[in-house]
Amino acid sequence: VVGQAGNAAEAQQLAAELQPDLVLLDIRMNGTSGLDCIPSLREQRAELKILMLTMYDDEMFLRTALQAGASGYFLKGSDSKELVRAIHAVMANELYLSPRLNQELVNMYRSGTDLTTN
Prior knowledge:
This protein has a single domain (about 10-110), classed as Rossmann fold. It is about 45% helix and about 15% strand. The chain contains 5 helices and 4 strands; from the N terminus they run H-E-H-E-H-E-H-E-H. The chain has a 4-stranded parallel sheet. Strand 1 (about 20-25), helix 2 and strand 2 form a beta-alpha-beta unit. Helix 1 runs parallel beside helix 2 and helix 2 (about 35-45) runs parallel beside helix 3.
């Protein structure tokens, strides 16, 4: 861990200053949504890995995160070993989705939702 931010503006500033390889980003941040931060982080550095770390397990948040360019979506409350797997996956340029999201993915597929990321 090289930095910690309380809101989207701090996250953007720290990412610009520290140039991390990976950002763990919560959807719920003080004053803004972490989802709103993804495009500007991507503009700073396209190769930056962004792993969403969140309690929200519904389709809307998952779809929004993926379409904004998140590298992965990890659900809080999951095993710490699973977090390590998630980090390794996104650092290997793989999309990571928490296993608990399987039903949401099926629902999105059945509804024809475009899961293409930016």
